[in-house]
Amino acid sequence: MKCSVCENPTTKCCSRCHTKYYCSKSCQKKDYPNHVRDCPSKSADILAKNVFDNLIPTNNAVRYEYGFCNCKDVDEESKLLGLYIGLIKYIEISTSELHSWWKSGNLIFYIKKAYENRNSGYYQWFLKNEHVLQGLRKYEGEKTDKYLTDKYRAMVKPYLSEHDQTVPIESLPESKRDVYTFYFMILKGYVPSIEQQAWIDFGFCSCKYVNSFFDVTEEPRLGDLYRELIIQKGCKIDEFHDAYLSGSILDLLKRKCNSNDCNWLSESKIETRGYHQPTKSVYYLKQYVLGESVSLQPSVNVDYGFMNCRTEDEKRHLKNIYEKLIKNSQFDPRDLHEACIAGKIFSYVGSILPDEALKGKFFKNPYPLKDFD
Question: Which of 226, 142, 241 lies closest to 189 in space, CA to CA?
């Protein structure tokens, strides 16, 4: 076998997954930021993956065992993530070492020792907020999940009507459960992930890229507007639910939130979707292209040319082109939608990506549809 880094012959492999080979500890260390993404075992390994992806953990075990559940808001979670980034990425504490610190119950002590004589803003924050890592316990599956669920439900409960507070969440209509889940995300400081239907329903799919190099989009700004609506303006779930059913969430935001921020909604042409109302296939295209495990919708397959691909390689190539397009600051999903229904996707993509070698056959679709009398 060949070393995964330098391709020298070797018989040594990762003792955990047995799929990656390394000729030396040096090569294994070089590949660690990449390999840890594919080879998580303990919660510390999953945390390391989040560190290298610069993402706040969503895995319940990681959140419970490494203090994220003890943070009061997303700002504190970001600072705690920064603390772990310093430990794992820069001080180069291994996940096995971090796990042993946690297991011994002395995580705080060893973090202080690791950061000794180092200047870090996140560490200074931690010294004033050690409580987030106090009393950490082992994640116990369903038992812990129930504890976390009860804790999270308590956050959302004040936004429910008196009647809905007395009934199981599972008994609420599906549309209201959608809103309930969305409230939980917003109250915790998150925005929906690309894979979630809420990403489409509540308008995040229509947010554009501000900086593609750093994967910066307008989504956090929309999330801030929802936080203003829910936390500052105290919008109850029933009122939001009514707007969701009628497809008037944008009107609700504009009516209740800061007018300057709401002007941005119009300028950026943010689009939300009412419960089970139709949506443009371009947003499912974005979801398919940008998501990690999103299946190809039939409408996207037809509208955006994937039906023209004969091989998986061709499909991947077309998907990569759309990814470059979507991450371009000039891209507007509504413009692509208009090009789609006019049968002019090839021209539109070429105007945004003039240096890209494009083949017209991949962008053919049945549009424009002929009128039938």
Answer: 226
